[in-house]
Write a structure and sequence with these properties.
496 residues; alpha/beta; Aminopeptidase; Glucose Oxidase, domain 1; 2 domains; nine-stranded mixed beta sheet; eight-stranded mixed beta sheet; elongated
């Protein structure tokens, strides 16, 4: 009887001990999550958007300076380097052009000159040559030559030595996935500009006023991005009215305008510059599960400098700051997570998802050992949270849903995932295309104006409280997911 009594007592105490341990772990999670504050988030944003980094242009020395800042934080927090040769950096090269001033842009018609000013009327091209050009202006629709699709904006149009007007997107507005994939490559601004360059154009007026660091450099070639009112002056009608005629007929509407344009630029092209992904790792403690990894990523580069500052606060200092705050909190759980957790601050996203492609082709953990990649891009404006693709991975989403209900208590949206259609525009889609299970982390119900690739994308237009809650939710969900022994990366569903 006494033996049975002690056995029951031992079991009871063991159960109580386990329960107490679970409660203390949960309390520690809650305590550490609350250490993530809005002030912490904004301190990171303040540094990332500082003018000394000149807009964090991929390839530039200033980009490597901001990469060093991020690496220094991870070192301070005890997060291990996971880049090349024991460093935090996965290096690669990328060309860049230094822009010293806004340059100038004017139009000429019947002996009259119309002078415009940046940034109100135009943005200078990010990759113009140093010097100037004056030439006839030709409208070339979408700037697309797609003979296999029966479409060519340059058919019987000589643009050699001329300045070409090019609109963004494509003439196809349907939703058929196969057709969208056919048109996808032709929607790229890089393709459109290279097409004009290959036809001997002296310059481009791009009909979408935003900063675009992806544009290709060519000696003697000049470019500006012009505002809608300037476009309408040249065309004599709103741009969309002209494009609607192309879309309705399915045929180009290219023609020579009566205008000339003059573009000047003050730049220096540097050829290949050093850039890098910045990668840190918290190893898991379980011998088996530590071989699986959970990754948080955000692109670190921005739009550069165009004679005026482009802080890139929402795009993407917000995403970087969210990951940094979560990383700092997770560093306090070293030795308490079975799986490994990794942080990737991605380079050269703005010039064509280059850094994410380089990582996917040479990953620290291959896709089959990556439980989840979470991409954060422009995550800092709104009142609600989103983990897109969560319905496809309910075992993973459940950890975030539970912690949101308990601690964060924000509206949380999700959906079913699908592979990208057309041209991929974010790093998360690049990871998906390489077989990585992916969540796209976002915010909903925007409350502040959205300034995309615009000098007004400043810290004052962020919502610090939603950034705080994004980071808290990521921290809480990752801790639980890292310790979930019921799931294995190799056995989980993968979107095809």
């Amino acid at each position: 009887m006494r033996i049975k009594f002690y056995l029951v007592l031992f079991v009871a105490l063991s159960v109580c001990g386990i329960a107490a341990g679970q409660n203390s772990f949960e309390e520690l999670k809650k305590e550490v999550s609350q250490s993530i504050t809005a002030d912490e988030l904004m301190s990171y944003v303040e540094e990332l958007t500082h003018p000394r980094y000149k807009g964090r242009l991929a390839g530039s020395p200033e980009y490597m300076d901001v990469a060093g800042y991020v690496a220094g934080l991870m070192k301070e927090w005890g997060i291990e380097p996971a880049g090349d040769d024991g460093s935090y950096f996965q290096y690669f090269e990328w060309p860049y052009t230094e822009v010293f001033s806004t340059g100038s842009f004017s139009l000429f018609l019947d002996g009259e000159e119309f002078t415009y000013a940046a940034p109100d009327d135009f943005y200078p091209g990010a990759a113009s040559d140093n010097g100037s050009v004056r030439a006839e202006v030709v409208f070339a629709g979408y700037g697309i030559s797609a003979p296999e699709l029966g479409y060519d904006d340059y058919d019987q149009l000589d643009v050699k030595g001329k300045i070409v007007m090019i609109a963004s997107r494509t003439p196809y507005t349907g939703r058929n996935p196969d057709t969208l994939n056919l048109w996808g490559p032709y929607s790229s601004p890089v393709y459109k500009v290279e097409n004009a360059q290959n036809r001997g154009a002296a310059g481009v007026l791009y009909l979408d006023k935003l900063a675009s660091p992806s544009m290709p450099f060519s000696p003697g070639f000049f470019m500006v991005h012009i505002d809608d009112h300037v476009t309408e002056k040249i065309l004599g009608m709103p741009l969309n009215d002209k494009l609607e005629k192309i879309r309705e007929s399915g045929k180009p509407q290219s023609y020579k305008t009566n205008f000339e344009a003059a573009i000047s630029a003050e730049t220096k092209h540097h050829g290949m510059g050093k850039t890098a992904n910045v990668i840190g790792l918290i190893p898991g403690y379980d011998p088996e599960l530590s071989q699986e990894v959970i990754i948080m990523g955000a692109h670190l580069d921005g739009q550069g400098y165009l004679g005026f500052d482009l802080p890139g606060a929402l795009d993407n200092a917000s995403g970087v700051a969210d990951v940094l705050a979560a990383a700092r909190a997770l560093s306090e759980f070293r030795g308490k997570m079975k799986r490994s957790v990794m942080f990737i601050f991605i380079g050269a996203e703005e010039v064509g998802l280059v850094g994410s492609q380089i990582y996917c082709q040479d990953p620290v953990f291959p896709a089959e050992q990556t439980l989840l990649f979470m991409n954060l891009d422009m995550v800092g404006n709104g009142t609600g949270l989103a983990l897109w693709h969560g319905e496809s991975y309910p075992e993973l989403f459940a950890h975030f849903e539970r912690n949101n209900e308990l601690y964060v208590q924000r509206p949380l949206r999700t959906n079913e995932g699908s592979m990208p259609i057309g041209r991929p525009r974010t790093d998360g889609l690049m990871f998906m295309m390489h077989g990585f299970r992916t969540f796209h982390v976002g915010t909903t119900d925007r409350v502040n104006p959205l300034y995309y690739h615009d000098p007004r994308d400043t810290a004052e237009h962020l919502v610090p409280e939603i950034m705080r809650d994004v980071s808290r939710l990521l921290f809480l969900g990752v801790v639980d997911m890292a310790n979930d022994t019921r799931i294995r990366s190799s056995e989980m569903f993968l979107i095809q």
